[in-house]
Amino acid sequence: MFIYNLKVSGSFLFKIFFIIVTIVILVVFSISCYKIFNLAKSNTNISDNSSNVIEITTSTYTNILKDSHENIDKYVGKSYKFSGYIYRAYDFTEDQFVLARDMVISSDYQTLIVGFLSEYKGIKDYSDDTWVEVTGTIKKVDYHGDMPELQVTSLKEIDKPTDEYVFPPDESYVPTE
Questions:
Q1: What secondary structure, in 3-state letters, does 128-152 show?
Q2: Of 29, 61, 33, 23, whose CA–CA distance to 45 is shortest?
Q3: In what helix (H) or strand (E) does residue 66 lie, and over which residues does it extend?
């Protein structure tokens, strides 16, 4: 019979425990940094073509909407392309509408209408709830306080998309210039 005697002291166990904890912390930190930078890159979802038009996708819609209201001056003069449906409020002029989406606010798919105040000369030819894709430039207007308004330069009617719903803005959104 072979007996092996291993003497382990408390300081030896502490060193091993400390090394393992340090390695775990470094791995978690590395993964977190990778996800943060990768998420920041993917959350922009900007397709920047030769005319410098920024395309807003379903996944970034509410994040950009929220940030544009909080930091209007950063968005003024920039061109955007995105889709939504036409929604009008009682106090709009005949050229104003909201390029709207339904934002899911609960697990049973209750929704709230959110969107960008927009202006387009020919909008009176379109009925409410018509899905459109627009391109336009943001300007600051006074509508119950300072608000970004999309000055629509092109508008085309589209079919209702399969990803019609948007979700509340998340805290991981990192706006980029």
A1: CCCEEEEEEEEEEEECCCEEEEEEE
A2: 61
A3: helix 61-70
Query: Which pLDDT tens digit goes with each residue over 27-66?
Result: 998 888 787 777 655 544 444 444 588 888 888 888 888 8
Residue 176 has pLDDT above 60, yes or no: no
Query: Taking all residues of the chain, what is their mean pLDDT, rounded to a whole number?
Result: 84
Reading the block at residue 78, the tokens are 């920039």
In sequence order, the β-bridge partners of residue 116 are 99
Residue 96: beta bridge partners? 119
Express each pLDDT in 81-137 by its tens digit: 999 999 998 999 999 999 999 999 888 888 999 999 999 998 999 999 999 999 999
DSSP string, 8-21: --HHHHHHHHHHHH
Long-range CB pairs of 70-73, under 8 A, 24+ apart, other chains included: 71/175, 72/138, 72/140, 72/146, 72/147, 72/148, 73/140
Cβ burial 92-107 (10 Å sphere, 16+ → b, else e): beeebbbbbbbbeeee
